Structure to design on (129 residues):
């Protein structure tokens, strides 16, 4: 069992920055990847970014980003604190959504929401023009 709690959302103007945090507890050693997803009103939940757990694959740390946020958002992990961050720069109104943190224990990199095993409750990000 893994528990996830997001924080850091808020209301900002276009062009501003926010940093979201996801604190994980429980059987965190079983997680393979941590992902950020978002869901805007009337839209499906979509992939934003992911990062693999250090040591879970025999290569450098792996990150992936949705095309819509690539170059603006950065995902990172604080292993000592069991916390994953999403640094969001140059925010746009279309970034407005509820942002969710998720954990995957499958051992396979995936960007599909249904394949993630644990979810946080979400944090609201609103970007005004």
């Amino acid at each position: 069992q893994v528990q996830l709690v997001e924080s850091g959302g808020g209301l900002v103007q276009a062009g501003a920055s926010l940093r979201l945090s996801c604190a994980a507890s429980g059987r965190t050693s079983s997680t393979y990847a941590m992902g950020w997803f978002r869901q805007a009103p009337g839209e499906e939940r979509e992939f934003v970014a992911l990062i693999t757990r250090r040591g879970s694959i025999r290569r450098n740390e792996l990150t992936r980003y949705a095309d819509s946020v690539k170059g603006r958002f950065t995902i990172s992990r604080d292993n000592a604190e069991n916390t994953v961050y999403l640094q969001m720069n140059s925010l746009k109104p279309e970034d407005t959504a509820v942002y969710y943190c998720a954990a995957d224990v499958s051992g396979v990199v995936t960007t599909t929401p249904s394949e993630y095993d644990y979810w946080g409750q979400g944090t609201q990000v609103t970007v005004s023009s």
